[in-house]
Structures are given as C-alpha cells and as structure tokens.
Design brief:
Blueprint (H helix, E strand, L loop, with lengths): L2 H24 L2 H28 L1
C-alpha cells in the first residue's frame, strides 16, 4: 500500500469516526450518518490498496 493512500484512508476513517461521535453527542443524525459514510469510504480505500499490494507480489 502506498504511503500516501494509506495515510488518506486512515485520515478518512479518523475524521469519519469523529463526525459520527460528534453527531451522536449532539443528536444530529445527519452528521452521524455522514461520519459513518466517511469511515466506510476510508475502509474501502484501504481494502483497495491492500488488494493492489496482494497482486503485486
């Protein structure tokens, strides 16, 4: 996994978690859902990079 994409995936996951927690604390369902979606995007990016790495070897 390239370092840049790995960092981007982790950043998306962390930002998504923060939004989800903030949304839950504030009772803002839209923010909470946005956070979950961002986490999923980071998870997908990470999985894609791991798949690329698996085929390189």
């Amino acid at each position: 996994m390239s370092t840049g994409n790995k960092a981007k995936a982790k950043t998306e996951q962390a930002e998504g978690k923060a939004k989800e927690v903030a949304g839950r604390a504030l009772g803002n369902e839209e923010l909470e859902a946005e956070g979950r979606a961002e986490q999923s995007k980071g998870d997908a990016r990470q999985a894609a990079e791991k798949a690329k790495d698996a085929f390189k070897h």
